[in-house]
Write a structure and sequence with these properties.
Layout (H helix, E strand, L loop, with lengths): L7 E17 L3 E2 L6 E6 L8 E2 L6 E3 L2 H38 L12 H26 L2 E2 L5 E6 L6 E2 L6 E5 L3 E7 L1 H7 L6 E6 L6 E8 L10 E7 L10 E16 L6
Antiparallel strand pairs: 1-10, 1-14, 2-9, 3-5, 3-8, 4-7, 5-6, 7-9, 10-13, 11-12, 11-14, 12-13
Helix pairs in contact: 1-2
Length: about 260
């Protein structure tokens, strides 16, 4: 027995449903650029701690670096004084040359040009040393330019830290994203995936979070043969790396689609 129905013609929006994982774009090391004894540590520098952009996470004893700045300032003052003295000698030498040899160009040696160049170089070197000393002093406080959370930390008050050594990891809250692997045919159904609106439902959360597709992966996974879509949430504070998320991605809308009953399948 057969049944004939007339399908309705209506607009239809393509959607892709998949499961993804929350990931941080990068884990940033807590790495001081200068060494010394840690004098202060923020309460945020604990696993799971949250910090604001520019917040000082810890301070290294600055006294050695303050002394280095003072020493560099003194060296710069000496270099400038020596340059001024040679410039005065050069002016006198030029006057004597004009009096002794009127109408003749003064030689570089008589004008003290080699001595002037050396003195100017010493001033430039002293200025560079002072700038470096000030930079090192600034580096006795460690902060980041983003709002973030601490993944791990081994920083304690009184600890002596070494430059270039990692003492923990943090990530930027604003850089969290949901990585969603989908079959290539689903990616093709979306057309241009970038900018597509997304509804994100995190495990353990009742309310969905809005987001959008940031970009599409450059290649398929060699084992799963899936391609990653990277989704940016509008409320990254609700995310934690490692959480699973169910996502619904809105694709293009088709203007005329034949809607069939499920029994037709």
């Amino acid at each position: 027995r057969s049944e004939v129905v007339r399908p309705d013609v209506a607009p239809h929006r393509i959607t892709v449903t998949a499961t993804g994982t929350v990931e941080a774009k990068a884990l940033v090391s807590i790495t001081p650029q200068v060494g010394g004894q840690v004098r202060e540590v923020s309460d945020a520098v604990r696993e799971g701690g949250r910090f604001a952009a520019g917040e000082v996470l810890f301070r290294i004893d600055p006294r050695d670096y303050e002394v280095a700045v003072q020493r560099a300032q003194a060296n710069l003052a000496d270099a400038r004084s020596a340059l001024a003295e040679i410039e005065a000698e050069a002016d006198i030498a030029q006057e004597e040359w004009r009096a002794t040899f009127p109408g003749r160009d003064i030689t570089a040696l008589a004008a003290r040009e080699p001595q002037l160049e050396a003195a100017r170089s010493r001033v430039m070197s002293a200025e560079a040393d002072l700038n470096q000393a000030r930079i090192d002093l600034d580096r006795t406080t460690l902060s980041f330019s983003f709002d973030g959370r601490v993944v791990a930390s081994q920083i304690e008050t009184g600890q002596v830290v070494s430059p270039g050594q990692a003492y923990g990891q943090v990530y930027s809250i604003g850089e969290l994203e949901v990585v969603v692997p989908v079959p290539p045919e689903d990616a093709a159904r979306l057309g241009e995936a970038e900018g597509r609106p997304v509804q994100i439902r995190l495990e353990g959360h009742d309310r969905p979070i809005a987001g959008e597709v940031l970009r599409e992966g450059a290649q398929l996974d060699a084992r799963s043969r899936l391609i990653n879509l990277f989704v940016a949430p509008e409320e990254p504070d609700a995310l934690r790396p490692g959480l699973f998320a169910d996502v619904v991605i809105d694709g293009p809308e088709l203007s005329r689609v034949l809607a069939l009953r499920g029994t037709a399948l």
